[in-house]
Amino acid sequence: MSIPLHRPKCLNGLATLGVVSLLLGAGPDRCAAAPDAQPYRIHPGDVIEVTVAGLPELSMRNRVQPDGAVAFPLVGALTVAGLSPDELRQAVQARFARKVYRRRSPDGRELLVIIQRDEVSAAVADYRPVYVDGDVARPGEIPYRPEMTVRQALALAGGVDLAVWRSTNPVMDMASYKAEYDTLCVEMTKAEAQIARLEGELKGAQRFDMNPAANASPGTDGNIVQIENDIMQARAVDYTREQEFLRNSIDQLSTRTSVLQTQQREEQEAAKADSEDLRRMVELLKLGNVANPRVLEARRALLFSQTRALQVTDGLLQLQKQSADLARQLQHLQDDRKTGLLKELKEARGALAATRIRRDAAHEKLKLASMARSQLLADENSRLDIRLARETKGRVSTQNVDRDYKLTPGDVVEIKIKEPPQPKSVSVLR
């Protein structure tokens, strides 16, 4: 039984050829050409894609190895380094031409497929990256794209990093100074609101109003004032409750003192009466009109009444002492509150003054940075030193280029920022 030679019909041949032509059209021979119009040469690190129409299992992507070779299915390794994309396509087609591929059909039969030259395509799928170093935000490698320029690579690297300038240079990071300035404005608003609250508490007010700060963020001033008003009301309620508790305790002690004073008078009168009764009993005993037990009973009654009078007097003295202590506590509460508020007010005013100084300094630095940066951005190209290192035939050459210079895979771009101009005038806070 003879095995038929079969050449698969590619229903999507036109689409496949169209995709291949697009890949080849976007290849480095058209898009990555150097300014001297020399075609791009494949280099180790590039990724080669090979497709065979109608045989997707033979399609592959592989990276060119350091020795310049890349392995292909069915034909083995092929040295491609140094070839142009056209030469790569021709070399791959020549190696695949008339190759016989054994393919199994869905019904289990083995089919021999003869690969034709025009059914094979090869192109560079991914190029070696380019490298950006120096005064950029994110130095490192960047994926290469056809027609890439230095400007595009710089944008992908995050742009020029202004923070690399020396600290003696007046140009700073404006975003950082703007954030510092806004933060200090908020701190000033907080300090001013705290001062207004403390002054209101010293005057016995329940609420306070404050004019919006000119530099505060929209909505920030109102929120801070509301929070300080809430603190003021909460502290006022707590202070009032403490005063009421002490006053109520003093009133209760005053009531108990009045009761004990009345009881003291009664006990003293009872003791006086018992003393008079004892005196009479002693006189009657001398006359022989009463017996001795009656005198002893009168003495016991007098001793009992005197003891009760002493107990009531001692309780009265303790209540008076407690009442005096509570009165002192009430006075100390008022004095300590006033002293604490004055101390807080002094610290808040000191913090406000320090914050105002820092805010003014941040504002001066922000103006300085804005002025110097505007001068810098007026002519960016004249402020950048761009050096390009490119390997050609094993030799590395360097040259100065501008932002619109077209790159090739593997190029190394080094960005250096020239010293920015010194501002014409600098205002210094004293």
Layout of strands and helices, then pairs:
Blueprint: E1 5-6, H1 13-25, H2 28-31, E2 47-52, E3 60-63, E4 69-72, E5 76-79, H3 85-96, E6 100-104, E7 110-114, E8 120-126, E9 130-134, E10 140-142, H4 150-156, H5 174-203, H6 220-287, H7 292-377, H8 380-383, E11 384-392, E12 395-400, E13 412-417
Parallel strand pairs: 1-7, 9-13
Antiparallel strand pairs: 2-3, 2-8, 4-5, 6-7, 9-10, 11-12, 11-13
Beta-strand segment tally: 13
Q: Work out the radius of gyration.
A: 50 Å
| Gap between N and C termini | 105 Å
Q: What is the helix/strand order? A: EHHEEEEHEEEEEHHHHHEEE
Strand ordering within the main sheet: 10-9-13-11-12
Q: Please give the count of helices.
A: 8
Kindly report the average pLDDT value.
79
**Principal-axes shape call:** elongated
Q: How would you describe this protein?
A:
- With 430 residues, this protein is α+β, with helices and mostly antiparallel strands.
- 52% of the residues lie in helices and 15% in strands.
- The chain has a five-stranded mixed sheet with strand order 10-9-13-11-12. A three-stranded mixed sheet has the order 1-7-6, with no helix packed on it.
- Strand 2 and strand 3 form a beta hairpin.
- Helix 5 (174-203) runs parallel beside helix 6 (220-287), helix 5 packs antiparallel against helix 7 (292-377) and helix 6 (220-287) packs antiparallel against helix 7.
- Mean pLDDT is 79; it is low at 1-35 and 423-430.
Put the structure in a nutshell.
The protein is α+β, with helices and mostly antiparallel strands and 430 residues long.
